[in-house]
Description:
Radius of gyration: 22 Å
Shape: elongated
Strand order of the largest sheet: 1-2-3
Largest sheet: 3 strands, antiparallel
Number of domains: 2
Structural class: mainly alpha
Amino acid sequence: MASFTKVNGKHHVRVRIKGHRTQCNSFIYKADALKWALETERAIRLGEFQDEDKKEDITIGELLQRYSQQISISKKSCTIERLRIGKMQRHWISQIMLSKLCDVDIARYRDERLEEVSSVTCLRDLGLISHMINIALREWGYKNQTILSREFANLPEPIRETEG
Length: 164
């Protein structure tokens, strides 16, 4: 429900809906205030409203940096994981916005990476990306417009040479 007040010649609007954060804005014209209130209420009810303080557009490279500083540091394999993250940050995939990342991008990264390294190394890279994205979506409050499948890659088992 929206409430309107006029203070110092400006129309202040407050939209309050149970279970959601209060949204406020100020306008010179009352018509603009009414329009914003209706649009905001509608967006909140439909689940389309995005709080401005929650970043939606962040690059994979920026996420990798945050992951390195907050998550990797507590792991036993910190030094190795930071090298892996550094390599990913120099790759084209680090320039993609999280909100635009899709399965096709992950598959392309996987295919290019498989030309350079073994399938085990590629699986480790994809596991790191998967964990980073899950943390970003669940704990850091970021949103992704495309629905990424949780299975990033169906890579064959590495070929093991047997002695004999």
